[in-house]
């Protein structure tokens, strides 16, 4: 049974895993349980492992192009999982979503231009804007009934200020929100009104928890499709982040030309052969594995929320509508971010992502990765309790 596979404790130390081998260096203390960086402690799907094994048994690893069926496997996946008819010609490959963010910023803006984001949000959104010499314009998310919402008055005011590009995170990281069709429509209408290009990071799209369902913003309206670049990847879904494979999708031919020109300027000419092999196998044969994975993660979510409600009532959790990441609001504990960090590391021996990394609105929060076998999760929850006892 696949579910039993998710229970298996896999030793990842001494494999170069950032999560397990670099935690001490990053957090300044040894012997911490790492529940921070967003990869899972589960084996990747068996069809992916099999495809990689078969490929490396061929002794030549020369220059490699996309396998013939990879476009069909990806477009078929997008149609079945997200109801979106993606054409082969809309697709560009990229080593990762963060690389794609940088490529889009370079393709569609000039140094000094304004780029909009909504904090708290995935840290590289800030990094890719500032490291490329653009100006961050922030439209902070607001909290309503323990869910992130968008202040559309502020959003429109920011767009009016001369913003060229919106970096949209859907599903949202770290909050796990799936923006509704109504919210996405309002975003699209306003961006269309003010001529703002949308770059939508949809890397967690496949990890939605029913009854919630992800909708790509480019699939809602032809006008939105023409102004949107969608970033997707098998890395979070199938736990193959180390293979560095992702996809850029845009219906807009002019956008594709600009994106490709930047990629060529930066000497990117395609994915490595194992990235292509894994991507093709994952989208072609990974559905059964993912279906069972999502059931396992959903159970982990319920256990986590129940434990924290019972044992740590001063901490509140957002229910992640997509992903295996949980955003914990620790502000009622009355501790500074430095005190939270020290308690987690020194008392709990637990490594979580500190909220301030995600920008304004992240203060007093931490992000916890529960994509792990249940025994590891229970260990982590007890450490969390110990940290704040």
UniProtKB/TrEMBL annotation:
Lyase among keywords: yes
EC main group: lyase
Cofactor(s) it depends on: pyridoxal 5'-phosphate
UniProt domain Aminotransferase class I/classII large: residue ranges: 45-372
Organism: Peribacillus glennii
Keywords associated with the record: Lyase, Pyridoxal phosphate
UniProt KW Lyase keyword: yes
One matching Pfam family: Aminotran_1_2
UniProt superkingdom: Bacteria
Listed name of the protein: cysteine-S-conjugate beta-lyase
E.C. numbers: 4.4.1.13
GO molecular function: cysteine-S-conjugate beta-lyase activity; pyridoxal phosphate binding
InterPro entries: Aminotransferase_I/II_large, C-S_lyase_PatB-like, Class-II_PLP-Dep_Aminotrans, PyrdxlP-dep_Trfase, PyrdxlP-dep_Trfase_major, PyrdxlP-dep_Trfase_small
Protein family membership: Belongs to the class-II pyridoxal-phosphate-dependent aminotransferase family. MalY/PatB cystathionine beta-lyase subfamily.
């Amino acid at each position: 049974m696949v579910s039993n596979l998710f229970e298996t404790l896999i030793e990842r130390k001494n494999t170069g895993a950032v999560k397990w081998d670099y935690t001490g260096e990053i957090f300044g203390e040894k012997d911490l349980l790492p529940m921070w960086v967003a990869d899972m402690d589960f084996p990747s799907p068996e069809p992916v492992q099999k495809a990689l094994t078969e490929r490396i048994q061929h002794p030549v690893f020369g220059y490699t192009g996309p396998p013939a069926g990879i476009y069909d496997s990806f477009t078929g996946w997008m149609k079945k999982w997200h109801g979106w008819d993606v054409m082969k010609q809309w697709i560009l490959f990229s080593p990762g979503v963060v690389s794609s963010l940088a490529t889009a910023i370079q393709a569609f803006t000039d140094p000094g231009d304004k780029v909009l984001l909504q904090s708290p949000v995935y840290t590289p959104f800030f990094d890719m804007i500032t490291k490329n010499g653009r100006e961050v314009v922030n439209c902070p998310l607001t909290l309503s009934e323990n869910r992130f919402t968008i202040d559309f008055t502020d959003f429109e005011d920011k767009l009016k200020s001369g913003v060229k590009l919106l970096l949209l995170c859907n599903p949202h990281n770290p909050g796990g929100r799936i923006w509704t069709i109504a919210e996405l429509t309002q975003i699209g209408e306003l961006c269309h009104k003010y001529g703002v290009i949308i770059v939508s990071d949809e890397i967690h799209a496949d990890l939605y928890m029913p009854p919630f369902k992800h909708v790509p913003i480019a699939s809602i309206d032809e006008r939105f499709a023409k102004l949107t670049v969608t970033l997707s990847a098998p890395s979070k879904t199938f736990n193959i982040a180390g293979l560095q494979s992702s996809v850029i999708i845009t219906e807009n031919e002019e956008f594709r030309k600009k994106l490709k020109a930047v990629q060529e300027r930066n000497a990117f000419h395609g994915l490595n052969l194992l990235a292509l092999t894994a991507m093709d196998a994952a989208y072609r044969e990974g559905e059964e594995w993912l279906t069972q994975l999502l059931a396992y993660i959903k159970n982990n979510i319920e256990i986590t929320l129940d434990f924290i409600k019972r044992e740590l009532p001063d901490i509140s959790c957002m229910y992640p509508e997509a992903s295996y990441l949980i955003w914990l609001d620790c502000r009622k504990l009355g501790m500074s971010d430095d005190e939270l960090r020290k308690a987690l590391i020194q008392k709990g021996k637990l490594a979580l992502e500190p909220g301030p990394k995600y920008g304004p609105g992240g203060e007093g929060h931490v992000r916890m990765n529960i994509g792990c076998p249940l025994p590891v999760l229970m260990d982590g929850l007890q450490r969390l309790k110990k940290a704040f006892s």
